[in-house]
Amino acid sequence: MPVTGRIHPQWPNCLNVRDLGGLPTSDGRQISAGALIRSDNLTRLTEAGVKAVREAFVSRIVDVRSPQECAAYPSPFTNDPIHHNMPLSKPGDTYDPTLSIDQDYIVMLDRNPDLLAAAVGAIADAPPGGVVVHCHAGKDRAGNVVALALSLAGVGAESVAADYAILDDRMRNHFDEQLALINDPTERSQLAESFTARPETMLAVLKHLDDRYGGVEPYLRLGGLSDNQVNALKARLVPS
Fold it and tell me: Which class in CATH covers the domain with range 18-235?
């Protein structure tokens, strides 16, 4: 299970920022504090928030939103060398709203292992410092990239899944506000389901990777992650 009592960054006005430092690995070590941070959309950052990100010694921001999202909601770091836009979908990829969340994640993973491996590789290849991974809400796309990175670093499936399920209360309030704007009951129900973050969702995804690919590491290697990147990711997140 995740380590309790962790201190997470306060980046005004981000709603769902979390330092993954302190999560336990299967060999009794921990993910290093400040090494990997997941977040919602950095577009919301105030000037104080941008300053806080820089003071956190962030060396790379892995923005896994689509190019269209980035254009509509630009990051304050768009023109900064630390910003890397690495979408997890390709033009023509379709979305099926009838799928469960875990099924939707599995479609994304099976369809584009090269893009998922590239996003994890961007964490491994980053200059010294912390790496931020974010999408729009910091739950789904960022949650999958973070889950892959943590699993590769040796964090057990139960801890990965429990951490995935954590949402800041501010993000939950934001979701509730969005739901209140939807009048159609079917659409509102589908959206409400998409806003959930349950441990069993991520456990199902990790089991799929085990069953189909032999685990997270073989999956990422299939997508193109190199030996050097595998070693660099592990050393970055869990120094010896």
Answer: alpha beta
